[in-house]
């Protein structure tokens, strides 16, 4: 509008949109990164969803129908809430991923650079640009790391979560991950009585729930414990991620 009308008021509105009450008015740079972030989220969800659900019982859908249906579901995971599949049949790993993306506000965007801050002092404009290290921009927040670890463990232990859902449920896994992150040591344990298909060789023991995990799941939990010990070095991470 400024280029078309040659009026500087539009530039002032863009630089002071929050003060004027136009919270939906973003700069061109932020709009570009917002679009890239949304597209990246959709591609990530589509890849994970298709990789876990491609060979499931889908009622004889063709490959094209699977892609279109999956794209519809992941596009609605953050905004619409519509679905063409029975969500109760979706693996818990995918559900946790959907919970994460539903938690994010609609204007969540990743800004690898700091936009210039325009401030007017005594009629003059002073442009300030904050340059920050590259490492600080690629770090995520603590909550984001915990969600990534939880989704990864759910993917690794998805077969046990399917055949032993009362023990291997998302809540128990989240509890174990957070306990490892805080270096607390709490565990919900494992109960043979909760098994849907009874195992005659199963014996209750005073071992942690992670003792029933696969080697890969235990390795991820070890990484969580190390990350929890070193959390002070990443507590300021996630600053480029804007959560309005």
Report what the structure shows:
By secondary structure, this protein is mainly alpha-helical. Helix content is 49%, strand content 6%. It has helices at residues 2-5, 9-15, 17-20, 28-53, 63-76, 92-103, 134-138, 142-156, 158-163, 170-181, 215-229; strands spanning 109-110, 117-121, 124-128, 241-242. The chain has a two-stranded antiparallel ribbon. A two-stranded antiparallel sheet has the order 2-3. Strand 2 and strand 3 (124-128) form a beta hairpin. The longest helix has 26 residues, at 28-53. Mean pLDDT is 76; it is low at 116-131.
Quick recap:
Helices cover about 50% and strands about 5% of the residues.
Tag the structure with descriptive keywords.
4 strands, single chain, mainly alpha, two-stranded antiparallel ribbon, flat, 11 helices
Strand-residue proportion: 5-15%
Helix content: 40-55%
Q: How many strand segments?
A: 4
Order of helices and strands: HHHHHHEEEHHHHHE
Sheet/helix structural class: mainly alpha
**Radius of gyration of CA atoms, rounded to a whole number:** 23 Å
In DSSP terms (H or I, runs of 4 or more residues), the helix count works out at: 11
Oligomer: single chain
The average pLDDT value, as a whole number, equals: 76
Q: What general outline do the C-alpha atoms trace?
A: flat
State the end-to-end distance.
25 Å
Side by side, the strands of the main sheet go 1-4
Q: Spans with pLDDT under 50 lasting ≥5 residues?
A: 116-131
Biggest β-sheet: count, sense, barrel? Answer: 2 strands, antiparallel
């Amino acid at each position: 509008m400024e280029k078309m009308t040659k009026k500087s008021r539009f530039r002032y509105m863009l630089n002071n949109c929050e003060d004027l009450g136009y919270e939906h008015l973003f700069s061109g740079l932020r709009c570009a990164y917002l679009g890239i972030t949304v597209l990246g989220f959709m591609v990530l969800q589509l890849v994970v969803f298709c990789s876990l659900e491609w060979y499931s019982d889908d009622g004889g859908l063709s490959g094209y129908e699977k892609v279109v249906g999956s794209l519809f579901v992941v596009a609605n995971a953050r905004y619409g809430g519509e679905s063409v599949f029975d969500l109760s049949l979706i693996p818990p790993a995918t559900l946790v991923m959907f919970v994460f993306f539903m938690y994010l506000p609609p204007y969540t965007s990743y800004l690898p650079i700091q936009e210039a801050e325009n401030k007017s002092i005594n009629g003059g404009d002073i442009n300030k640009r904050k340059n920050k290290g590259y490492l600080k921009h690629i770090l995520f927040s603590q909550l984001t790391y915990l969600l990534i670890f939880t989704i990864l463990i759910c993917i690794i232990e998805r077969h046990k979560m399917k055949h032993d859902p009362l023990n291997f449920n998302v809540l128990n896994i989240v509890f174990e991950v957070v306990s490892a992150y805080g270096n607390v040591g709490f565990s919900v344990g494992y109960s043979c009585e909760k098994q849907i298909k009874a195992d005659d060789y199963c014996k209750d023991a005073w071992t942690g729930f992670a003792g029933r995990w696969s080697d890969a799941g235990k390795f991820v939990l070890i990484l969580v414990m190390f990350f929890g010990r070193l959390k002070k070095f990443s507590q300021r991470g996630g600053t480029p991620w804007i959560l309005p």
